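ok here's Acetyltransferase, seq below lol
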Amino acid sequence: MKTEKEKMLAGEYFNPLDKELSKERLAARKLLHELNHNPPENLQQQKEITRKLLPNAHKATFIQPPFYCDYGYNIRTGKGVFFNFNCTLLDLAVIEIGEQTMFGPNVQIYTAVHPTNAEKRATHIEKGKPIHIGKNVWIGGNVTICPGVKIGDKSVIGAGSVVTKNIPANVMAAGNPCKVIKELG
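and the structure came out like this:
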């Protein structure tokens, strides 16, 4: 029989109120508190906290606090990834981000999926769908990226967009829902 964490990592419905998962979220919240309340001149401590919070992120990942996530260990980044102020990553599933990708302020990345059936939703079960964001992508401020989305290398997502479907490589896309506007040269 699978544990709730094993179900979560397999992309199956799981109970997020499970003791092990609750303990892991609490540990992440403690690190987030440290990160978000770290004196701004203490960049070395910020790097150390970031490495603990995001053990699968490249050491050259930079976060401009405040920053929020569920677990941290499901966030994988390449070299030079930058998160501006107030980004939120609900990492029930893997969020993979290629090198040199930049996020504007208030970006929301959601892997969480809840049942559409009200009775099932009332049981508080959920699951996650992984998100993949390529290399050298620029995500504008206030963008929401929905569960299961893939964004190709070198693409630009315009501010305020809601990305509900895959976006190919090397395009400018924007809107709600986010759509390709033009190819980039």
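fwiw The first strand starts at residue 62 and ends at 63. kinda neat tbh
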